[in-house]
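Hi team,

Filling in the usual template for the complex we talked about on Friday. All components are listed, including any nucleic acid strands or ligand strings, so the model treats them as one assembly.

SUBMITTER: L.P.
PURPOSE: interface mapping
COMPONENTS: two
RESIDUES: 359
SEQUENCES:
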Amino acid sequence: MTTDSLETALRGSSTDPTADLAAALARADAEGLVDVAYAQTDSPIGPLLVAATPAGLVRLAFQREARDDVLEELAERISPRVIEAPARVDEIRRELDEYFDGRRDHFDLLLDWRLSSGFRRTVLETLYAHVAIGHTVSYLELATMVGNPKASRAVGTAMATNPIPVVVPCHRVLRTGGQLGGYGGGLPAKVRLLELEAGDQTLF
Amino acid sequence: MNPPPFQHLLDAHSAVLHRFCLAQAGPHHGPDCFQDTVVSALRAYPDLTDARNLRGWLFTIAHHKVLDHHRATTRRPVPVPDVPDRVSSDGPVVDDDLWVAVGRLPEKQRGAIALRYLGDLPYADIGAVLGCSDAAARQNVRAGLAALRQEVSPR
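RESULT (copied from the run log):
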């Protein structure tokens, strides 16, 4: 055998790591080494990325947010032990499926709020707790609900930086007078969610 | 540089790490070496201070898992064949004959050959994994190839 063909033969072996990798990650998860688990899930508003820590759902991202940017943000802000682990987010995906099918009017998920803090977090938690499906509020009304009616601009910022959209329903926050305002997932997604929650009647 | 999401390492390197472990430790023990490598790497990852050469870091861990395995098997009182100690016939995971021959090389040559041709690492990284200079790593690859050329029949 010439050196060249020997080297080619040495390089040529290939194995399938899929099963062993799955086994390794199951072991790692059992040892508590998977700090952030994520998976992609399909929805009527496009593919969504969902990410969870042991404390709960921590991030939901629309397709228009680059997947690598989202994962790098999670690695930097939470832990670099970020692993694609669909089994760990099964429950989240199931509830989202039911919601998008019109079979669920609220979420029973644990939420990990750590990616928002201070006033923004207060606003998001208030929104999550008090603005139910089928209802909308204005930025001003939400600012009033958190006891700071002059802060509607800051409320807008809180909505724009919502780490868990759809579940924390920033799509239910509109401009005074009913104009749509903005949406991180794009306005068509906001309209679609509001239509879905209204029982698929066309609202706009 | 912040360490990237661990999944990026798996996407980029798990296939080569896997065949490295299987070629080095055989089809029975290779999967354990591979799994141990992934679990150990994930455990140590948040404390990693230098995230510049993650591929080299992963192969350092894998190389040590393989060495641990070889030491464990050679310490057994029952005589066992040279490494890889058991080559199963269930599925041609790697070029068996060739890698059995690699398994008979001295430890440094065996490691150097595997890191070079399965890990596709530069000589400086091979040296870092094996604890020698890159010139010595290059020499080990050359000597390993020469020995293999003697042993493996042309095909």
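MY TAKE: Chain B touches chain A at residues 2-8, 10, 14-15, 17-19, 22-23, 31, 34-35, 37-39, 42-43, 45-46, 93-95, 98-99, 102, 113, 116-118, 120, 145, 148-149, 152-155 (CB under 8 Å). Residues 9 and 54 of chain B are 8 Å apart (CA to CA).

Thanks, L.
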